[in-house]
Structure formats: C-alpha cells, structure tokens
Design a protein that fits this description.
Elements (H helix, E strand, L loop, with lengths): L27 E11 L2 E13 L5 E9 L6 E12 L2 E8 L3 E12 L2 E13 L6 E11 L2 E10 L5 E10 L4 E2 L1 H10 L3 E4 L3 H6 L7 E2 L27 E4 L5 H11 L5 E4 L2 H7 L3
Length: 279
C-alpha cells in the first residue's frame, strides 16, 4: 500500500526571552568597515560581519568575522555569549588566537541610542597567545547603525585604542515594488502601514492596508497580538509592511521577526516610491 509522506514540520521561531528586551535592538546581522592600530602593528582596515542571535533562551550568541577588504580573505573570528540581568550584562568570548575573555558591564538607553559598555574581569590565555591584560568594548546602537570601539592593554602597552568599526544593519527581508506585487498576488497577504494617521490619510495606502503606527510594534509575541494586529498568533502569516520612505517599516519588520513572525517583509522605498513610479 502506497502512503503519502508527511510534509516536514516547519520549525517554530522562538519568542525573544523577556530578559533580553534591553538588548533586542542588537539582534540581527550587521555589516560594515573597521580599522585597527596598535603600537606593535601597522594600521589596518577590515570588512566585518557581526551577528547577534537568540534561540528563545536568556542569552545572545555573538558571532564576529572579519575579512581583508582587498581580496575577501578571512582575518579574524570570535564567538561569544551575552547574558543580562536588569541592565547588568556579562559577556564571554573566545577567539582562535588562544584568548578567552570574561566581561562585565551595563546597557543603557538614552532616547533612540542604546549603549553597551563592557570591561574584562579576567583574560584566559593559552601558552601560544599574546599577553593581553585587559580589554574594553563599547557598542553604540542608533537606528540602523552600530558603532563599536575596542581598547586593549597588551604586550607591555598601556590601555589604548585598538579597533573601531561602523556597521549597518543587514536586511534580508525587503521587497521591491515588483516583488511586492508578486507577493500580494500569489497569496492572501496582510498589508500593514506603520505611518501615523495623518500620513496614512495624506498619501494613499496600499489596497486593504491596516494602519498600525510603529510604536505599537514590540519584540515579543504577546505585545503584537492585540486587536489591531490582524495576524494575531499566526507566526506563518505573510505580511507586507510599508511606511512613507521604507525606514519605519524596516524597524517594524525587525521587531516582528524577532518576535517570531517569519514571513514579514518591508516595502522598499515606502509609499513615496510606490506612487512616484506610477507617475
């Protein structure tokens, strides 16, 4: 007797753990350029990819990789874990040079800026590793930009600047106008417009768009299942998010995907670009 094989189960994206909410803005992938210097080395440049990953537990995995900007060859890698209690943060990180570092610090928020400040409390070294005594790291997050600096006391030198980088959030969930039209025609899609009410009325929205202002979006499922959210608890629901220029919709989609809504997409260029291309 022939039986039809069952379709594989779709893995459920975990909700962000409540303890991680002060760090929610960091979650995702960041890419950009960095530079380094130190008395013992020649100044250098690098490309960097930095990822903050959560699996629903009260920690964040941090994965860092740098490449040579000229030929793309690997330069350095680090893997670590962030944990948080209130605004106090701990960070454990190791790298292939033989260093294992333990940091303590704090996360603070001032308006739209989130700062993560960390200093080592201990540095473990293999017998092949260079003599690193202490390290300080500071991450400053503002909208879609993440800047960091790293100061180091090592190999007989006092604490001083070693690395700095300017990174931009890497978005993989943005649809062009053409792709958005295909998306909406291929299946029933929830269309959400995150502009405020005056903007929503001034520039015509997409057909059947629901107006939900950006401030309603948060990084936990429980906070995004009220009556104003038409998808409720359907984590697989296809959702297209738009705004005026395409920036606020990116923030909404990041919050939604962090909360586990895996089919949320942002309209590139927003309603201004949508209507401009029809003129």
């Amino acid at each position: 007797m022939c039986t039809r094989a069952k379709a594989p189960a779709v893995a459920k994206h975990p909700d962000l753990h409540e303890a991680l909410l002060p760090l929610a803005g960091f979650i995702g992938t960041w890419k950009g350029d960095g530079s380094g210097d130190y008395p013992t080395v020649e100044p250098f440049k690098y490309k960097e990819t930095l990822s903050f990953v959560h699996i629903g537990k009260p920690f964040i995995e941090v994965i860092q990789a740098t490449q040579n900007p000229k030929d793309g060859s690997p330069m350095h890698r680090e893997v670590g874990f962030l944990t948080i209690k209130g605004t106090d943060v701990s960070f454990v990180v190791s790298d292939p040079t033989g260093l294992a570092q333990v940091y303590e610090g704090t996360v603070t928020k001032d308006g739209n800026t989130v700062k993560l400040s960390l200093s080592t409390t201990s540095v473990g070294k293999t017998r092949f590793a260079k003599d690193v005594v202490a390290v300080k790291r500071e991450f400053v997050l503002q909208d879609f930009t993440l800047n960091y600096t790293l100061d180091m006391q090592a190999v007989g030198c006092d604490m001083q600047h070693h690395l700095s980088a300017n990174l931009k959030r890497h978005f993989q969930h943005v649809l062009s106008k053409a792709d958005a039209k295909d998306f909406m025609q291929s299946k029933p899609v929830h269309v959400v417009d995150v502009r405020d009410k005056k903007e929503f009325e001034a520039l015509p929205p997409l057909p059947e768009a629901v107006n939900v202002p950006l401030e309603k979006f948060h990084a936990t499922e429980e906070q995004m299942t009220g009556d104003e959210f038409p998808w409720k608890t359907d984590k697989e629901a296809p959702i297209l998010v738009c705004c005026r220029k395409g920036f606020r919709s990116l923030r909404a989609v990041e919050a939604m995907r962090t909360a586990g809504f895996v089919n949320a997409y942002s309209l590139d260029g927003g309603m201004e670009q949508w209507h401009a291309s029809e003129e």
